[in-house]
Amino acid sequence: GTTTVQSEAPLACVDALMNKTMTDNIALPDNQELYNTLPFVVGAAGLCGYDLGRYYESLPEKNKKSYGCPDMAIGIFEQSVIADTHTGQLYHCRFNDIPPLSEQLSLDTSSPGTTQSFTLTSDWSSNLTQAQYNDALEKVHAYIVAGDCYQINMAQRFCAQYTGSEWQAYEALREKNNTPFSAFIRLPESCVMSISPERFLSVRDNQVQTKPIKGTRPRFDDPTEDANSANALLNAEKDRAENLMIVDLLRNDLSKHCKAHSVKVPHLFALESYAAVHHLVSTVEGTLKDEATALDLLAGAFPGGSITGAPKIRAMEIIEELEPDRRNIYCGSIMYYGIKRDMDSSITIRTLLAENNHLYCWAGGGIVLDSNARDEYQETLDKVSRILPALEAFRE
C-alpha cells in the first residue's frame, strides 16, 4: 500500500476522505424509510486512542509508549453488513458497483485470524503496587488542595501473557458482559476487544448526545444487597459531585460546536446497571451548528472528559505524570461516521489491547478531594471483576 503524509489534523483528514469517497454511489434499500432507520450504512469506522489528544493539545511526554496500536486507525468502508439483533435480519449496504452478498463469498462469522484456542500463559500483574497507587492519590490530593484541578481520573494497567485466538477471548467477555458499546477490531499489529458500557458522542439529524459515566458500585447476587448497593450510589454525595463536574465539562466541550443555548441536560444522575457494576449516568444534548461536522465535534471534545478529570488539560498533564505507561486505546474511542453524517462513539473503558502475545487491561476512577485511597483502589478492581476472571477460565 501507499503512504501519504497529511498536514491536517487527524480527524480533518478523515472528513476530507469521506467527502472524496462518499458520493451518492451506494445501492440504497428499495425502502427509503429503512435507509433512514439504519445506522451508519457505509462510511468511516475505527478507533481513536487516548493519545490522539496530543495532536490537538500540547501535552508533556513522560510515559513509556510501548504499544504497536496506532493513535488512530480509521477505515473508509464502501460496504457493511448490519445485523438487527432483535429480529436477526441482516442488511448488506454497499456502493452500486459492489455485487450483493449472495454473489460474494458467504458471510463468515467464525473466528477471524488464528484458530488456536485462546490461552492465558501468565498471571495478571499491575503496573502499580497498592502502595504506589496510594502515593499517586496523595499527589492528586495535593494538586486538588493547591487548586490545580477538581478531579483526576487515575488508572492502573493490568498485563498478562497469552497465546491463541483473541476472537475467542472476546466472545467469552461479551457473554459475561452484555454492554451496548462492545466492539472487536483487528489491526496488523494489534487486536482491540472492548466491552464498554459508555457512549461518548452520538450525532443523528444534527442532534448531539453524550452520556458520561461517573460513579460506580459493585453488583451482588443477593437481590437485597444489590439493591442496597444501587441505592447507596444514587444517594452518594461524592459520586453525584464527581458526575456534576464532568457534566459541566462536557457542556463546555459540546458548546464549541453546538448552536448557542441548545446544550441541555435532560437526565442527571440516572442509574444504569451492568453485569459487574451499577453506574451513575447523565445525559447532555445539543444541536450541531450548521457549519460544523460530527468529526469537528469529536475533535473538540476529545478525549472524553469523563475519563480525564477537570479542568481537562491540567488533568491530562497530571495523568501523564502519575501513570507509569501510556493509555493507548484505553479511554479513547471506537466510532463510526456514516454517509448520512450520523456518528456514534464509545469511551473505550473495559477495553483490552492484545499484541505481541501480551494482553493489557486498564481500570481507573475519578479522584476528588474526599476520595478514600482504599475505596478507589477497590473500585478499579470492581471494574475488572467481570473481565479478568472471564479470561482466567482459559488457563494453561
Task: Tell me what you see in this structure.
- The protein is an alpha+beta fold.
- The protein contains ten helices and 20 strands.
- The protein has helices spanning 10-21, 32-37, 130-145, 166-176, 223-234, 237-255, 294-301, 312-322, 373-383, 388-392, and strands spanning 26-27, 43-48, 72-77, 79-83, 90-95, 119-120, 125-126, 151-163, 181-186, 191-196, 199-204, 207-210, 213-218, 264-273, 277-287, 309-310, 333-338, 343-346, 351-355, 358-367.
- The strands form three sheets. Strands 2, 3, 11, 12, 13, 14, 15, 17 and 18 form a nine-stranded antiparallel β-sheet that branches. Strands 6, 7, 8, 9, 10, 16, 19 and 20 form an eight-stranded antiparallel β-sheet that branches. The chain has a three-stranded antiparallel β-sheet with strand order 1-5-4, with no helix packed on it.
- α1 packs antiparallel against α7 (294-301).
